[in-house]
Amino acid sequence: MAASTPLSDLRHALLSRGLEGMLVPRADAHQSEDCAPHDNKLAFLTGFTGSAGLALVLQDRALLFVDGRYQVQARHETDSALFEIHHLHDEPVAEWIAQNLPAGQRIGFEPMLMVNSQYQALQNSGCELVALSYDPFDAIWHDRPAPPQGPVSLMPPDISGELTTTKRARLGVKLQELGVDYLVVTQPDNIAWLLNMRGSDVPMNPVPHSFALVKNNGAVEWFVDPVKLTLVPPVWLMDISLKAPSALLARCQEIAAGKRILLDADNAPVAVSFAVEAGGGEVFWQPDPLTFMKAQKNLTELEGYRHCHLQDGVAWVNFLAWLEREAPARAQSGTPLTELDVQAQQLAYRQQREGFLEQSFATISAAGSNAAMCHYHATPATNAAIMPGSFYLNDSGGQYVNGTTDATRTLAFGDVSPEMRRHYTAVLKGFLGLITLQFPKGTQGHQLDAFARRGLWELGLDYDHGTGHGVGHRLQIHEQPYRMAKKVNPWPMLPGQIITIEPGYYLADNYGIRIENQVEIIFGMPGFCRFSSLTLIPIDLRAAELHLLTEQEVAWLDSYHLHVRDVLSPLVEAEARPWLFEATAPVHTRAGTPG
Amino acid sequence: MAASTPLSDLRHALLSRGLEGMLVPRADAHQSEDCAPHDNKLAFLTGFTGSAGLALVLQDRALLFVDGRYQVQARHETDSALFEIHHLHDEPVAEWIAQNLPAGQRIGFEPMLMVNSQYQALQNSGCELVALSYDPFDAIWHDRPAPPQGPVSLMPPDISGELTTTKRARLGVKLQELGVDYLVVTQPDNIAWLLNMRGSDVPMNPVPHSFALVKNNGAVEWFVDPVKLTLVPPVWLMDISLKAPSALLARCQEIAAGKRILLDADNAPVAVSFAVEAGGGEVFWQPDPLTFMKAQKNLTELEGYRHCHLQDGVAWVNFLAWLEREAPARAQSGTPLTELDVQAQQLAYRQQREGFLEQSFATISAAGSNAAMCHYHATPATNAAIMPGSFYLNDSGGQYVNGTTDATRTLAFGDVSPEMRRHYTAVLKGFLGLITLQFPKGTQGHQLDAFARRGLWELGLDYDHGTGHGVGHRLQIHEQPYRMAKKVNPWPMLPGQIITIEPGYYLADNYGIRIENQVEIIFGMPGFCRFSSLTLIPIDLRAAELHLLTEQEVAWLDSYHLHVRDVLSPLVEAEARPWLFEATAPVHTRAGTPG
């Protein structure tokens, strides 16, 4: 008898329930970007640790669907005798089922882990989808990590800028305008914003995994594990009806009769829509209004971003000045700094800053060819040295009490090749081309994306990621709904939104370049908007062909650097000050400029 | 008893048929941009002559829906005692009906004049839509112009570049790939392209009003008035089954049983879908594949565009040199040139050119504030003089045997104000910003549109029209499906497509500026595209602030002008040559440049 594996155990469990197969997505009920270990069934089942994927387990085959980023990693992490690797987008699982399985096969799925668009596609695949009312992994995952129970903390009004009561009242009005009786909120960052609370279930994601049911008078029922509320003074919970997360579906069914209930079209689990329909309610698929309310920052939040970026800028400058001192000396001494050394030192500098809580995402500290993988994270096995003649890329940020930061700098150590200079200049010109733009209020992200690519396009090059994403206010580092990317983003960009600008270039097995500032969208001339940088970090110009910059680009760089110098020089450590002055010198004083 | 009007006659006719109202769109069965006088029921009924609109005639009210361009003109042309003017987009007719009419009112419409999206919207408006099988205007429009019967002519293979037989075979394969039995073609330019014929039903629109039914083996049934085919040698019609246009619906119904039939989602009349469904067929709403096949030009067509643009460039230079000689002299003598004088002279120069057939659209010859209306056409009543200190805008083109041209130049006569110079420079920089771009194959028009606006955005300004449209090959001046505009255009831009680049700026009651080149999309670096100008006309730099141009912009202008000079100087009339040399001089030789 062969040793049991998670896969064989699952097959056995399915068979005993009369199922021919089951879908196991890398997802939790909140469609979180980072899910808790408790929820990572896909990793338990397959060994694959990437952040997106889906397994289809059948009795005689098992398939793992992952996107282009993860084709290599998935083959490396899974047992090829057990799992076939397929492409998540080029060959969607619904299409695979339609083409390869006899019609009517009974395929189980957990309806709390599936959104409506996935469900509709699978509905048309010819199989019989069986919604499971139990979690088959409970029986087979013996050392399963416990569900997260991170404490919830308060976000006081002097930081959030608006009382939860007025947020709830405003939301109620919006729901009435939409002709909706209830809203079911399943995105924890929307709950966090609405209730002025923050969570700690998953590191770097300060949101409470939980659900909310909001009536169109603003009344809130919060489905949250009470253990998480130990630190919350009862007075903050006074107008909130607390319930267990497991009660959500029954409650939705209970209140549904004759009601119109808004479920987020992209994120709500189909289980909720089943419950609403079972209770005689009408499901109204729409984006959650909270997503837009939250993305439009108020003045207090905007001030918070400025404060935490000042702190983060000090940490960056102290760190970069240290790095510029240490890296050449260590390389020459034969014990060069490594990616992990550097990110530890950077974290130490951040931890000195007022209001710093934790990193806002796993730092990308990437030397040489490691930076060519744009989602690289250093491990002891990959930990590369920072050597002369190469680029070092650092993409990192902090969660602070009053905001969230995210920035990237690419540093040229020693003399880099003419080709590296050409590519660095193209990325820099893309960054400048977009950040200097004035654009009409309401312009959509996809209309602006190409400005950041023009410099690379001119060389016949491009980068395969978006140009900018929203950033939460002490919330998610990738906040919906605003994006600048090639893909259409239909939402109007307006003053008071926060977004990143981060063009890059990646030459496989050689190097990676990215320059990223976080910006606030501000008013420009009447009817127009501009970007105002929150990020306060000198931009390395050593690898830039300065004679290729336009007057407008030079003027932006000089004015930005002067500002960075002015606000940071009183705050950085004394040893860092000379480096700060050098790094923020006007373009015309540098080598390589005309005249 | 009051005198009868078209409106009262129509109401009487509707009443006798038991209808409470009727929809009368400005449309023909082909959704033509320019419809024949025979088809312009809206103008007969209301007096409104604009190119888009819709009347809703009820027994006690009559409403005319027109878009923003036509709000003023509609009030001017219609009797306000008879017609209320509404906004076509802000208050769609379906919404108006839903909010203002009792449910179940019987509203007639002609299903050959309505496309599916309009029909679906009206279906949900609460009225009872009654598809009319007769034309109520036959009885009330006594002096109605006859349907057009313009002769069809051939487009020989040395000009079309591909035999109709291979086009039909390729189309058959595409239909099979789509799993379709038949395609119903209702867009005359698609028929013209497929059959290598050109029509003459409506001036400047060289397409034969007709329909086609194409089987998935490439066999064609052509529903066309045989009178139009008098000049076509029978051998060209050998493999085509000819039928009367009036036979289309019966034939569609006849062949439909058990078949899947492709109808163009945006342009096919709902009458055709009714016929297919009545015959037991399945309607497959998709873009007509011919739209894409036609837009991807072959090498012979591309060569034709180059040839006719050379001819058109000679006509433009002869014309502009004449204008630059005459306008100041005539203004000084007190009998200045007028818009109509100038466009007549321009036409005379075009008529001298080899292969010129007719104008490709009604010339926009606009002096001073008339040019602020971007769709202005001069009439004796509006005919303005060309005076010093002003801009003169000319947007015109020709149908040539081997292609279609479309270009705009704005000329600065005498000294123009600093503000005019600022605006002209912003438009010029937008034009240059886009035309110098290299972009990845498959980029979509809305991703590039903003490059043409950046110069204006920088001043807090914009223009309210698209940036570029496709141009047919001796076909429609606005050819589907490619567009560069703010609005999403999902179709990938690829080498071999023809498009315009035409940013502008319009200051109401003052002046209008537009600079337009027609371009071919060509291969750039591997995987990338560039624009190559077809248009060969000097760009007026007298109003440009040359010191604001970048090196790249200057390099493009100099190289473009040198090319224009080289290819045109041997061909233009002797008197025009000195002006051509001056107008194509390198930027650095001009006043106002640095150094």
From TrEMBL, chains A, B:
Domain Peptidase M24 as annotated: residue spans: 306-521
A GO molecular function held by the record: metalloaminopeptidase activity
One Pfam family from the record: Creatinase_N
CDD domains: APP
Boundaries of every Creatinase N-terminal domain copy: 8-133
Domain Peptidase M24 C-terminal: 527-587
SUPFAM superfamilies: Creatinase/aminopeptidase, Creatinase/prolidase N-terminal domain
Keyword field: Aminopeptidase, Hydrolase, Metal-binding, Protease
GO cellular component: cytoplasm
Family (UniProt): Belongs to the peptidase M24B family.
Name the UniProt record assigns to this protein: Xaa-Pro aminopeptidase
